[in-house]
């Protein structure tokens, strides 16, 4: 099988040969139909000696012939325009991809360039595994914030993934069209609500609800997890629904034809075929849960301690950065940037783990 570059070069050579042969044919047709010799000097002498009517007829035939040749040249001009457009668009796409890579490298260069010397100054183990956060005494231990971020994210994904995937299955296979026209815009609207509005909802509704059962003020790990689960629902529902609908209908119809019930065909055939897209939706939802700050800062309690129960207050890495970056200076500010690097590395490791799981499925 020829290589793509060799095949493209062969097609290009054939195109140029065809275009050159086309020009030769047009030249001979002009000489035959218009009584023109192949040499333009002889043709000029002949036109001067002809009568006026013949010259007019000759011009009309020449105009008609030029119109026909112009129409015949359109495919070649179109091929040239298409080739030029393809080249320009390929360069544009390459520039956009390169811009994304440059942006990621710039972020990594800035964060790691600021954070690595700071972590070395504070001490790697004191910084990552220290359980006390006292900036006024220059004691910077972020282990409680790491645990808080991990617990809040995992619990929110546990709550949100189950509800989100089941909702996507309902919208894709079990929902009536009349109801679907109402539910889909509602889910999309849920994705557009600002984070601070979610925070107000959690403060007014969820905090009171949890406080009614736990009697601890309502702010804590459980409240933050429920609120984040609500926030990541649109991401999981919409992406999972798209992945489920992308599975060929023949999978579902084949399972039904073999005697499976509708529920069994959906859960054991369609969902299995769409598992990579569903897993991607969960990864994106967890990424948003880890990076959320404004809603969590209102309902989490913001205590830099390792929680002993599900209702205790917690502080995540994002809320820690948002709360103290406004007045931080010197080493304190550099440590907060280092917290951002830890969060970045945490999300990167999480994505790598999910990617490894997706390959095994």
Automatic annotation (TrEMBL):
Gene Ontology process terms (BP): phosphate ion transport
GO MF annotation: an example: phosphate transmembrane transporter activity
NCBIfam families: phosphate_pstC
CDD domains named among the record's database cross-references: TM_PBP2
GO CC, alphabetical: plasma membrane
Keyword Transmembrane: yes
UniProt keyword annotations, A-Z: Cell membrane, Membrane, Phosphate transport, Transmembrane, Transmembrane helix, Transport
Cellular compartments annotated: Cell membrane
PROSITE patterns given in the database record: ABC_TM1 (PS50928)
Functional description taken from the UniProt entry: Part of the binding-protein-dependent transport system for phosphate; probably responsible for the translocation of the substrate across the membrane.
Membrane topology recorded in Swiss-Prot or TrEMBL: Multi-pass membrane protein
Stated name of the protein: Phosphate transport system permease protein
Transmembrane segments annotated in the record for this chain: 87-112, 142-175, 187-209, 221-239, 335-358
């Amino acid at each position: 099988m020829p290589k793509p570059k060799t095949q493209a070069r062969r097609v290009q050579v054939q195109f140029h040969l065809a275009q050159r042969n086309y020009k030769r044919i047009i030249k001979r047709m002009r000489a035959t139909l218009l009584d023109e010799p192949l040499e333009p000097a002889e043709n000029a002498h002949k036109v001067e000696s002809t009568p006026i009517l013949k010259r007019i007829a000759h011009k009309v035939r020449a105009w008609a012939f030029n119109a026909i040749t112009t129409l015949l040249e359109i495919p070649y001009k179109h091929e040239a325009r298409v080739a030029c457009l393809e080249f320009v668009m390929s360069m544009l796409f390459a520039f956009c991809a390169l811009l994304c890579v440059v942006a990621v490298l710039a972020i990594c260069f800035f964060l790691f360039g600021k954070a690595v010397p700071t972590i070395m100054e504070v001490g790697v183990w004191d910084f990552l595994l220290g359980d006390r956060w006292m900036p006024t005494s220059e004691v910077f231990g972020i282990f409680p914030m790491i645990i808080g971020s991990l617990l809040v994210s995992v619990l929110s994904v546990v709550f949100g993934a189950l509800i989100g995937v089941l909702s996507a299955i309902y919208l894709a296979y079990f929902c009536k069209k009349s109801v679907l026209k109402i539910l889909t815009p509602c889910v999309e609207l849920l994705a557009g609500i600002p984070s601070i509005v979610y925070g107000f909802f959690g403060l007014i509704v969820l905090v009171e609800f949890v406080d009614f059962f736990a009697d601890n003020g309502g702010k804590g790990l459980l409240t933050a997890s429920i609120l984040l689960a609500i926030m990541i629902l649109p991401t999981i529902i919409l992406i999972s629904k798209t992945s489920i609908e992308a599975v060929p209908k023949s999978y579902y119809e084949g399972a039904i034809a073999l005697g499976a019930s509708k529920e069994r065909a959906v859960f054991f055939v369609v969902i299995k075929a769409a598992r990579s897209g569903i897993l991607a939706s969960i990864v994106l939802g967890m990424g948003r849960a880890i990076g959320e700050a404004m809603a969590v800062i209102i309902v989490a309690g913001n205590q830099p301690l390792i929680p002993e129960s599900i209702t205790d207050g917690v502080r995540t890495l994002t809320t820690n950065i948002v709360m103290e970056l406004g007045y931080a200076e010197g080493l304190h500010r550099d440590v907060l940037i280092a917290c951002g690097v830890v969060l970045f590395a945490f999300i990167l490791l999480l994505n790598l783990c999910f990617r490894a799981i997706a390959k095994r499925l």
